[in-house]
Design goal:
The chain has nine helices and two strands; from the N terminus they run H-H-H-H-H-E-E-H-H-H-H. By secondary structure, it is mainly alpha-helical. It folds into two domains: 139 residues, no CATH class; 84 residues, Winged helix-like DNA-binding domain superfamily/Winged helix DNA-binding domain (Arc Repressor Mutant, subunit A, Orthogonal Bundle), CATH 1.10.10. Helix 2 packs antiparallel against helix 7 and helix 8 packs antiparallel against helix 9.
């Protein structure tokens, strides 16, 4: 009997008995890990597609802070600190290190995607020369090509996933305990998101994304992760039972 999440079709899941055709406990654990990862990524991918409303292509490109900074420069030229603040406001969920914006700008300039010019500050900062960055024609074309290209969601990978991949039967009880700790973190974050007061929408797309869509996507991903933890514990307990029977 396949074990599936509520949003996953039965045909997309691997039947449970197939996992236990491995000749050893170790083989069973490896099969179990790849099964759970595949199902977790399938669920996350469908959540992402439902939230973003787009199609996934086989030649997706990896999004990076470089393309985000370039997009902000195209939107409005600015200096390093200004762009770092805007990056945090618009893309805070990606948890990029905004101090790397300066290095990113230099790289974009080296690649011919932006150009810099000096300008005096305003008000009390008039004596301060600021480096303002504008997008070049090549930069705009590069950004447009990326924007219109098909994108594939990045696979879900966390430290706990690797621990599960390397776990041996004697470590499974500890792995079960770790999933409960990680699950509680997800629950706590869900409560925080649920208690947060939604910002008043000003009618702009950027506010709709950062204030509504991004939050809703995170909620769905957390819920999917919690369901996956429940499956991990179920299969871990089955493996422990099988190990115990073989030891008798």
């Amino acid at each position: 009997m396949p074990v599936c999440g509520p949003s996953i079709a039965v045909s997309d899941c691997i039947p449970l008995p197939a996992l236990f055709r491995a000749p050893s406990i170790r083989g069973t654990l490896v099969s179990l890990y790849f099964y759970l990862i595949a199902e977790s990524e399938l669920m996350a991918r469908r959540v992402w597609l439902a939230s973003a409303g787009t199609q996934v292509g086989s030649e997706g490109r990896t999004m990076s802070v470089r393309i985000a900074v370039l997009g902000l420069v195209i939107e409005r030229p600015g200096y390093g600190y200004d762009l770092a603040q805007r990056l945090e406001e618009r893309c805070g969920a990606w948890r990029w290190n905004t101090t790397g914006v300066y290095t990113t700008l230099k790289g974009l300039e080296r690649d011919g995607h932006v150009r810099s010019r000096s300008r005096a500050g305003v008000g009390s900062a008039q004596t301060v020369q600021r480096t303002i960055y504008d997008a070049t024609r090549d930069g705009r074309e590069h950004f447009r090509e990326w924007m219109l290209g098909l994108s594939e969601p990045a696979p879900v990978r966390q430290d706990l996933d690797l621990k599960l991949a390397l776990a041996t039967p004697e470590l499974l009880p500890e792995m079960i305990a770790l999933t409960r700790v990680e699950e509680q973190r997800c629950v706590d974050e869900l409560q925080t998101l649920g208690n947060a007061q939604p910002s008043r929408w000003d009618g702009s797309w950027s506010e709709a994304f950062t204030g509504v869509l991004e939050r809703n996507n995170r909620i769905r991903v957390l819920r999917a992760r919690i369901e996956w933890f429940e499956e991990v514990r179920s299969y871990a307990r089955l493996v422990l039972e099988q190990s115990s029977q073989r030891a008798r």
